[in-house]
Amino acid sequence: MDSAFKRQMAPPLSLLILGALTPDRHAVTLTDENVERLHLDDNPDLVGITVKADTAVRAQHIARVYRQRGIPVVVGGIYPTTCPDDCVDHADACVIGEAEELWAEILRDAENGCLRKVYRGAQPPDLRLSPTPRWDLIAEKKYLYTNTLTIGRGCPFSCAFCYNSSPNLPAGYRMKPISGILRELASLHTSHVMFIDDNFIASKSCARRLLEALQPLGLTWHTAVSADIGRYDDILDAMAASGCESLFIGFETLDPSNLKRANKRQNLIEGYNSTIAKIHGRGMIVNASVVFGFDGDGPDVFARTTDWLIDQGVETMTAHILTPYPGTELHGQLEKAGRIIDRDLTHYNTSRAVFEPARMSAEELERGYLDAYRRFYSWSSIVRRLPRDSRRRAPYLLFNLLYRKFGKVVSMLGRIGPMRSLGKLAARLSYPRIDGPAVALATQKITAVDSSYQIPGDSQQIPPDRKRQTGSLPLASRPLPVGPHKPEGLGNSPARPKPA
Ligand code: B12
Ligand code: SF4
Fold first, then answer.
1. What predicted TM-score, i.e. pTM, was given to this entire model?
2. 353 φψ region: left (φ > 0), alpha (ψ -120 to 50), beta (else)
3. pLDDT of residue 50
4. Domain ranges across the chain
């Protein structure tokens, strides 16, 4: 429903990381088609494209255009990782998994003209190798937020509809060293940040350690957690004390049989209400994620779910139509049952019914999903859900009105003027304490704390400044052309922020 707006939300971290993994002797250009036009008439030495299911068709087209001109193309990301067989024929190289330990080898092979068809790390990479993303590669003003980072990779769970259920994803969870996380925080040069991990509490002990390190920094932050958060009062306390303002939670459904089929054992429906109350009690906002179309869902599911969310005073809702992403366990089940009715991958964005639901028609599912949005974001619901806690009111109203109610208008405004200014204004109105000196102060504190968390062999420094390096970088991502390199290949890389 809101995908257009979402596209302008934040730049793809994957490509900022690839940029940072690329040695200085190569010039890197990044184009994000979500926010700018991609001109396919350049002549890079190598093109890298990050691909999700819904962008796979477009990625194939881009790859074809470059390959016809003899320019090699490497694809990576969620789709090539979960469905490599669907990608190998469309690229010179297909990367299964994370880039950190593979990118240097790929660049070397590309330079020597001997790219392999498939690259796959023997082990998931050591996250000490994950560099600070190169924020200088994008035009920040085109995005609502440019304050995103992740603390780890993977998830200990394996919900049937999630990419984590793919056998190509490593099992379990790895957190980055705390020094690396703090360095990334410092590189964002703001005290208002978003941890865009699947699950911030994937490891409770790691989360506790990190929260302790975040506590003195004066941050204002947001993240996503699994629905079992309500069982960990101490973590909730530490989150609130360190400046957490909102939690995105995958409640998914109110029907236990749906959770069982989805293999989502960590969710306990009987604990949902108290979890929401505990989060509200600590002054934080709940962004509930729900999924419609499970086999237990009949036509009454939409009203039942939204009424429950409204009764609980949930501040924001993100609804999804269950989507059998290729490579997931759910896809295997529905394929076997002959229930996939739409194979156009551009529709695989959780707003379309691409399979035959069990207890309603595909049309009813799509209509009900839109009705749920209308009902939840109706004027009467917005008034009913208005938080009693005055601190939560400004972010609540801004999100409900500017993003959901008038999202299309705001999105258009953002395209005319700088999107980032709108994001900054909304953040300032929501959280007045993020203004001014707090930013510098937080950065100093991070630097101070960082040294105490130094890990052996980890010598990367905090980049002092991430200002645009005007003139040196043409902007290019959903697809990422890496290059162009000048023929001599050396000494032509854009100036990088100096190490501290
Ligand atoms: C943050 C996030 C968002 C944010 C911001 C997106 C952004 N621009 O960064 C928002 C809220 C906007 C968003 C929106 C959507 N999202 Co989203 N999102 C995520 C999330 C949680 C994190 C993405 C991330 O930054 N990860 C960190 C980076 C570093 O990891 P990475 O991308 O995997 O990259 C690594 C490797 O894959 C590899 N790699 C990646 N690309 C490449 C390219 C090359 C050449 C190479 C060599 C390697 C390589 O190397 C990287 C570093 O190791 C992911 C889940 C996840 N954990 O990945 C879902 C996820 C990607 N989203 C998903 C979906 C469905 C959506 C929406 C369609 C939801 C909706 N209904 O609107 C929209 C689509 C919007 C759009 N058109 O882009 C799905 C995609 C499913 C699929 N199989 O395609 C995911 C996997 C969630 C899930 N559990 O299913 N999303
Ligand atoms: S808890 Fe979330 S991220 Fe983890 S497997 Fe389930 S849906 Fe995926």
1. 0.89
2. beta
3. 98
4. 13-126+450-499
